[in-house]
Amino acid sequence: MSTMSRSGQGGPGGKAARVRIMGTPRSGTNLAKHLVEAYLRVPVVFDQGFWKHGVFPALMNGRVLQYGGLPIIVMSKDPISQLLSWFRFTRTDSVFRPNKYLGSFLRGPFEIRQDFTQPNQMEYRFRTPADYWNQFYFAMNALRRTGAPVHFVRYEELVSNPAQCLNSISRLLDPARPFDAGTAVAIPRYAIGASNDIDRPADPAANQGPFDPSRANLSSALARVGWRNARRILRDIDDDVLDATGRPGFPETCRRSIGLAAIARSFIGYW
C-alpha cells in the first residue's frame, strides 16, 4: 500500500509519522516498541482507540473498515512458548486470572482483563488460552487481507536477528529508505516494563529483571511444558493462523525439537 491516511504517513512513499504495535500479552510488543523508536525513529502507538492486546474490533463506518489510519506491526510468539509465558504470568495476578497448574490452565476457560489494577475495565473470555491466540491472530490476518498495512513479526526472529526484522518493518514505514540489515542492533540487557501511550510508568527506566533469551527457544519451552501438554496446545491451534504468523509446518517443527526432558515432563503429575 503506497499511501496511508494523514495520521499515518505524510504522502505516497513517505515515512510513517507513527506506527501501531499490537500483539498478545508477553509477545514482545514492548521490545518491538523500544527497537522501532530507537533505530527507526518512528513513535509507537499502543492503546489509542483500541487495546493493543485486544482482538481487533470490527470498527465500521458504513462499508469502510476503520483501523486507525496507522500502519500496524503485529508481534507473535510461537504458541508453545506463548502459552507457557502466559501461565507464568498468571502468578503475577495482573491481566490474567491466577492458575496453579499448567494442565488445568490449558484446558479451562481463559479470562483476560485490560487492567486488573483498575475498576470497570473491559473483560474478555475465551474457551481456552489457545482460543485467544487463534482469535487474536486470525483477526489481524483478516485485517491484512482487506489491504490494511499490517506486518507480522515473529518474536523469536526479532530476538535472533533484530536488524533484519527492522529492515522488513522499515519497508512498510518508509519504502524509500529501508533500514540497513547489516546494522548492529543491541537487544536491551533487561526486560522492558509494560507501558503504553495512555498510562506511562512513573519511571520509564524501570525494568523487570535480566532479559532471558531462552524465552525465544522452542526446545526450552517444550522441556518446560512437556510433550503431552504441547500436543494439547497443537491440537487447539489453527494451522491457517500458524501460517499467517509465519510458522508453516509448526507441529513438525515441534516434533523435531522435542527432547528427553519434554518427554519426561509429561509424566510429572502436577503439570
Description:
The protein has 271 residues and is of the alpha/beta class. The chain has one domain: Rossmann fold. Helices cover 38% and strands 13% of the residues. The chain has helices spanning 29-40, 79-90, 102-107, 129-145, 155-160, 162-173, 218-225, 227-236, 239-244, 250-257, 260-265; strands at 19-23, 44-45, 60-61, 64-65, 72-76, 110-113, 123-126, 150-154, 190-192, 207-210. It has a 4-stranded parallel beta sheet, sandwiched between helices. It has a two-stranded antiparallel sheet with strand order 3-4. A two-stranded antiparallel ribbon has the order 6-7. The longest helix is centred in the middle third of the chain and has 17 residues, at 129-145.
The CA-CA distance between the termini, in Å, is 47 Å
Spell the H/E element sequence: EHEEEEHHEEHEHHEEHHHHH
Helix content: 25-40%
Beta-strand content bin? 5-15%
Can you tell me the overall shape? globular
Number of domains: 1
Number of DSSP-assigned strands = 10
| Largest sheet entry | 4 strands, parallel
Strand order of the largest sheet: 2-1-5-8
In CATH, what is the class? Alpha Beta
Q: Return the CATH architecture.
A: 3-Layer(aba) Sandwich
Radius of gyration: 19 Å
Key words describing this protein structure:
four-stranded parallel sheet, Rossmann fold, 271 residues, 10 strands, alpha/beta
Task: Write a short abstract of this structure.
By secondary structure, the chain is of the alpha/beta class. The chain has 11 helices and 10 strands. The protein has one domain (19-265): Rossmann fold.
